[in-house]
Structures are given as C-alpha cells and as structure tokens.
Write a structure and sequence with these properties.
It is built from three helices and four strands. The chain has about 140 residues and is an alpha+beta fold. The protein has one domain. The chain has a four-stranded mixed beta sheet. Strand 1 and strand 2 form a beta hairpin. Helix 2 crosses helix 3. It is flat. The chain starts with 6 loop residues before the first strand and ends in a 33-residue tail after the last helix.
C-alpha cells in the first residue's frame, strides 16, 4: 500500500505540540464529523505513522466545498478525527486480509483474467478513471 500525505504538521494542544496529518479535499459535499470518524483513509494514514514509530494524534480533512445546487459560494472547513490503538490494529488487519485476497486471486486467475469488478455505480468503474474500462466485462464490455 502506498500513501502520499498532503501535509504533516504539529499544532499546540493543551500546552503540548501534537503531530497531525492534513488531507486536502475539494468536494461538492464536505465530509461531516461522523463520516470522517468512519472513513478508512485516516485509519490507513495514522496506522502507517504508528507502525513507523512516529504516530500522529489526529487526521484533519481540510475541505473546500464547491458551489452547486445547494451552495451558492465556495466554503471551507476542517474536520478532525482520531483513532484508538485498537482502531489502528483493525485497519492493519483489514489491509492484511485484502492482501491475502489479492494473492489468492492472482494464484487462482493469474494476472490476465478478471478478479471481480468495481461497483458500476461508483466513480472507479468509469472510462475516465479505469484504463481497462473499454474492454472490461464489468465496464463498457457489458
């Protein structure tokens, strides 16, 4: 797994310097605190820092909300989320499970046969984001 942090920072919190990670987003609908608390991206980034022995205390989504049907002007917000050690361990277990599934599919199907398809209603299954979309039985090939 490869991650690119947008910004690593330190900020004062109750007299201490607290390390954190900030991720920039430009979205039509900004994430809420509840969504940030259940989003997997902060878990992955914070787990990586934790494994390296350089844990970050928090993950912040710095968001720009684009104008649209519900919003006349651009707006900005920051949503902060934290993870417990148990949540970081859970994220690592999910990553390990996915890795074992990739190995199993490779061993069973090889590199050239389909292993399953992205959700066709999601952005990942589109001509814009998938170079195999035109020939894929799960994309335009249906």
């Amino acid at each position: 797994m490869l991650c690119f942090l947008d910004l690593e920072t330190v900020r004062p919190d109750h007299g201490e310097q607290v390390p954190g990670v900030i991720d920039y987003k430009v979205k039509p609908t900004p994430l809420t605190e509840n969504k940030a608390d259940s989003d997997f991206q902060p878990s992955v980034y914070l787990a990586g820092r934790w494994l390296e022995g350089d844990p970050a205390a928090e993950f912040c989504f710095a968001q720009i909300a684009k104008p649209g049907p519900r919003r006349r002007e651009m707006s900005a917000s920051i949503v902060t989320t934290r993870r417990t050690t148990q949540q970081l361990r859970g994220a690592l277990a999910r990553i390990a499970q996915l890795a074992s599934q990739v190995v199993a599919c490779y061993e069973r199907f090889g590199p050239d046969r389909p292993w399953g398809f992205a959700d066709p209603t999601g952005w990942k299954c589109s001509e814009r984001y998938c170079e195999a979309w035109g020939r894929c039985p799960g994309g335009a090939g249906l």
